[in-house]
Amino acid sequence: MIQRNDIGYKIGESHPRGAKYSDAVVEQARSLHDQGKGYGTIAAMLKVPRYTVRNWATYQSRNQYPAY
Q1: What residues contact 15, with CB distance under 8 A and at least 6 apart?
Q2: Neighbouring residues of 56: CB distance < 8 A, sequence distance ≥ 6
Q3: Alpha-carbon distance values, 49 to 8, 21, 41, 45 (Å)
Q4: How far is CA 66 from CA 1, 20, 50, 51, 60, in A?
């Protein structure tokens, strides 16, 4: 299923340029951060850069949700 935001643009894994990490990994990182884990710890667990985890956790990237 292709995910689109409220104005019809493809988002997340559905974006034409592709996402390097799956939506599931992003959600897992956010969940771990909500549980009090630090960016470095999460980055090591998921094998992604620390700054990427920070951007996900603070909703600076991957911050749109499918509207339909």
Answers
A1: none
A2: 26, 29, 30, 33, 62
A3: 30, 11, 11, 10
A4: 11, 18, 26, 24, 17
User: Angle CA(4)–CA(22)–CA(20) in degrees, nearest 5?
Assistant: 95
Q: What is the pLDDT along the chain (68 residues), one digit of tens a residue?
A: 677 777 777 767 766 566 788 888 989 999 999 999 999 999 999 999 999 999 989 988 766 666 65
Beta strands in the chain (DSSP E): none
Cβ atoms of 32 and 42 closer than 8 Å: yes
The letter for the amino acid at 52 is T
